[in-house]
Design brief:
alpha/beta; 32 helices; 5 domains; Rossmann fold; seven-stranded parallel sheet; 13% strand
Length: 895
């Protein structure tokens, strides 16, 4: 049991025989749970337990009132703003939300610290006048008017709260201070304030009044060792002078033990989670162990890493509601509808697909897949509500409810729509997710009630901003045994508690101390003048809690991550670094120095008999040149595409892709040159044909792409590029003709297929392909493949016939060899003296026709014959043999 609580209980028994009228105020609820448990163990039957409060709940008891939710306070603040602001400068609620929450927080702080509100706000106005170097600008003038209005806004807001019986934390404290004399006069009880390190001015006023009336006792819990962590803070020195000389000090000197401190550095958060799991797994007993996630979003990963050997645990900090899948679904839902409202009531297709792919929607697996297919089949970037209604008629699912957002008249309708869907969804989700749905359902109903009450007009985007703020404050509290097993809790809960072993996770700078600075209109110097809290106050309190942990624990394990992230996030906390600088008995341990070094092995797939048979069938059906190129690029991609038949998922093209660009260029050239097959080209004929290029290119784009988007954004440039490629190529052809060259088109988009027989292969195979163009240039037959991408002549160089072409750098050469083989094997070339095969790259226009070259030296060897091609096909056979070899697995290449 905690030594401080043990001493406190001993004091209670000695000094308070009447515990029925005794109230104990502690720093947090967690300390109250422990105190109540141990009091029960020592009390006799029939004896009354004292009342146990936190300071906030005690204030609510004095004021006989409860705090109002922050979002509702914003509605009331806006109402006060409308009543105190001239009509010419009033802002909409959408704009008000951007600064209203900051003003509300500043008002709360002023009251919580009993500051003279009028004085502070007046000084704030004058400070701004001094700093304002450009008073005549509209922005400066409006900001000054805003500051001048803060004082009447505050007073009208307070009046409005009192008339509606609403409250915020600071107002409750100020009213409690004003009513404390009345309270002390009528109360017959006695009060103990225990376990605190410091009080705010309002808290300290109340404590002093009760002590002065002999109705309260104060017991500090101040760490005596490791005080170097917090003594340097100015506000701590002030508290020491003003507060610590009152009451009694309970320290842990009697324990007289020094904690064993282990500082563990881990490369990544996952490594620290694994180390934490091993600590817990090897622990003999975790009943007196506390696990502290300093980063709130770590809770989920910590829960997943808890080993099965931990039989019981209790989680007091809860899991943020925003981390549940239910809320991520809501995020996608509102993003879909906010974007739709901004796009003339049309849904963006990606927002729709993102919604269908959400894990909770995929619970309706068939409907999710059908919706996705239906959306893609429309091939429209933006879909109307009518489009969705048409799909709705063919797909029956509760998910359809979420796709009626554009039918909603107001924000209340969106929430009601969500609740309708959640009524269906709760039947399919886990128990934990159902708990989250229940909380969200309650929040939705609360919002509907507020909006009906306050009748405030604002956009859907602003509503979602408020909604997200409220959700971010909510947590799901887990059930567990509060006093047994592993305790997972927040760092601030450690005040007044002690455990044998405390594990601090993510003790990085930025998390310890935390860097969550709240925005404020009150500047730093004005805060110091009036004793208002700065970020240093929060840091100092956290330093004191760390000193308390080190003071009362027998073992403290501190883990931090060294992976790079945002600035400072990979650094060890400055608090922990002080322990190292003081040369205390601290052990440091780097996990990366002790982890086994395992390289990530590439994915491998063995060639089973079934796979071998699939390869055989595929090869006999027809091997395309591009398939062998895929294999040289990455055998796993080849396996997925040609053996498993897995192609890249269909999607809606927002911009014209490279594949469509290539298709349009190929088809346009086919249309232009088809009239000239088996005839000699003339420059006049090509000039006349070139006049139709623009029309033909546009027709092909319109046929293969949504017509309304062909000339939008990047697509405009791509269409221009397609026209430019073709016009420049035609111009090059005309120049060749005018120089006296002869060009005769023989074939366009020639489909070829032939069986290939070889003694080195286990069975006959088939090659197939489509040759873009075959022509006769002077006396040379050219087998041409068009490429809209960049190709260099070096990619078509092969130094010798025996070279194995398994490297991807030969992919273009492989294609040309196979095209040449297919054509020469199917045609009689008796009258042709020379044969070349190569590529025309539209991105490498100056290179012209680039033939396959069998010599990488200065003297090119580009002429092909049947015997030459057969020799080159031996190199292709090496690829076929490698594909078929059962000894060579399909192994992923690093790309």
């Amino acid at each position: 049991m905690d030594s401080f609580l043990k001493r406190l209980i001993g004091t209670i028994f000695k000094t308070h025989s009447d515990t029925e009228n005794l109230s104990i105020i502690l720093p947090n609820q967690r300390a109250g749970v422990y105190l109540k448990h141990h009091l029960k163990q020592q009390y006799t039957q029939g004896q009354f337990l004292p009342h146990i409060y936190t300071f906030d709940s005690f204030i609510e008891h004095i004021a006989n009132a409860k705090k109002t939710p922050k979002i509702e306070l914003l509605f009331l603040l806006y109402q006060a703003y409308q009543e105190t602001t001239p009509a010419t400068t009033k802002e909409s609620f959408d704009r008000f939300v951007n600064w209203g929450a900051t003003v509300l927080e500043d008002f709360n702080t002023l009251d919580l610290y009993l500051s003279p509100v009028d004085t502070v706000l007046e000084q704030l106005k004058h400070i701004n006048k001094i700093h304002n170097w450009t008073p005549n600008t509209t922005l400066s003038h409006n900001y000054l008017l805003f500051l001048q209005n803060l004082t009447p806004l505050y007073h009208r807001f307070i009046d409005l709260l009192k008339s509606t019986n609403k409250n915020y934390q600071g107002l409750l404290y100020r009213e409690a201070v004003e009513q404390i004399n009345i309270f002390t006069n009528y109360t017959t009880g006695n009060f103990i304030f225990a376990g605190f390190n410091a009080f705010t001015p309002a808290q300290w006023f109340i404590v002093q009044e009760l002590i002065n009336q002999d109705k309260a006792q104060l017991y500090w819990n101040l760490p005596t060792r490791y005080d170097f962590l917090y003594r340097q803070y100015t506000f701590i020195k002030n508290i020491q002078k003003e507060q610590w000389n009152v009451g009694q000090h309970y320290t842990n000197d009697a324990a007289n033990q020094t904690a064993t401190i282990n500082i563990i550095s881990a490369g990544r958060a996952s490594s620290s989670m694994k180390y934490t799991a091993s600590l817990l797994k090897n622990a003999v007993n975790t009943n007196n162990t506390a696990l502290i996630p300093l980063k709130q979003d770590q809770v989920a990963s910590i829960l997943e890493s808890i080993p099965e050997t931990v039989k019981s645990m209790n989680i007091t900090m809860g899991l943020p509601l925003k981390m549940f899948q239910s809320y991520s679904l809501i995020q996608r839902f509102f993003q879909l509808n906010i974007n739709a409202r901004q796009q003339n009531s049309k849904y963006y297709y990606r927002d729709l697909i993102t919604l269908t792919e959400h894990p909770l929607i995929t619970l309706y697996s068939q409907a999710s897949q059908e919706w996705k297919k239906a959306i893609i089949s429309k091939q429209k970037l933006y879909l109307t509500q009518e489009d969705l209604d048409n799909i709705n008629q063919t797909i029956q699912s509760p998910f359809n409810i979420l796709l009626e957002g554009l039918k909603c008249v107001n924000t209340q309708d969106y929430l009601k729509l969500l609740n309708r869907f959640f009524n269906h969804l709760k039947q399919k989700t886990s128990e934990t997710e159902r708990e989250a749905l229940f909380h969200i359902f309650t929040i939705n109903n609360l919002f509907v009630s507020w909006m009906d009450t306050y009748q405030t007009d604002f956009s859907l985007k602003t509503f979602y901003t408020l909604y997200h703020q409220l959700i971010s404050q909510e947590q799901i509290n887990f059930m567990g045994e509060p006093l047994e097993g592993l305790q997972i809790m927040g760092f601030l809960e450690l005040q007044s508690l002690a455990f044998d072993h405390v594990i601090l996770c993510q003790a990085n700078e930025g998390y310890l101390p935390s860097e969550d600075k709240k925005p404020s209109y009150i500047p730093y110097d004005l805060r110091l003048q009036h004793g208002l809290p700065t970020h240093e106050v929060k840091q100092g309190m956290e330093a004191m809690i760390l000193a308390h942990v080190l003071n009362q624990s027998s073992k403290v394990t501190i883990l931090y991550n060294t992976d790079t992230g945002t600035f400072g996030s990979n650094e060890l906390s400055r608090f922990v670094q002080q322990l190292l600088w003081k040369n205390l008995p601290v052990s440091s341990y780097n996990l990366s120095d002790h982890l086994d070094s395992h390289s990530i092995l590439p994915l491998e797939i063995a060639k089973t008999k079934t796979i071998y048979q699939s390869l055989k069938q595929w090869m006999q059906k027809g091997i395309s040149p591009s398939a062998l190129g895929t294999y040289t690029y990455n055998p796993i991609d080849f396996y997925n595409k040609y053996i498993l038949g897995i192609n890249p998922q269909d999607d809606i093209q927002e911009t014209i892709g490279e594949q469509l660009l290539g298709t349009v260029v190929h088809n346009t050239l086919q249309d232009l040159y088809t009239p000239f097959i088996n005839t000699n080209l003339t420059s006049d004929a090509l000039r006349q044909a070139s006049e139709t290029i623009d029309t033909i290119v546009e027709d092909h784009f319109y046929s293969n792409f949504e017509s309304s988007r062909v000339y939008q954004g990047m697509n405009y440039l791509i269409v221009y590029i397609a026209k430019h490629f073709i016009k420049r190529f035609i111009k090059q052809e005309i120049q060749s003709l005018e120089k006296g060259h002869r060009i005769k088109i023989l074939h366009l988009e020639k489909v070829l297929k032939t069986e290939y027989i070889s003694d080195t292969l286990p069975f006959n195979i088939t090659f197939k392909g489509i040759v873009d163009r075959v022509d006769i240039f002077d006396n040379t037959l050219r087998i041409i493949d068009y490429k809209t991408g960049m190709v260099q002549p070096s990619q078509l160089n092969i130094s010798n016939f025996n070279e194995k072409l398994l490297d991807y750098k030969y992919a273009k050469a492989i294609q040309i060899i196979i095209y040449a083989y297919l054509y020469l094997n199917n045609h009689n070339l008796a009258d042709i003296q020379t044969v070349n095969a190569g590529i025309i790259s539209f991105k490498n226009h100056s290179a012209g026709f680039m033939p396959l070259n069998r010599n990488t030296h200065r003297n090119p060897e580009t002429e092909l014959s049947i015997s030459t091609i057969k020799n080159l096909m031996n190199s292709i056979e090496h690829i076929i043999i490698d594909i078929l070899s059962v000894e060579n697995n399909f192994t992923e290449k690093a790309t």
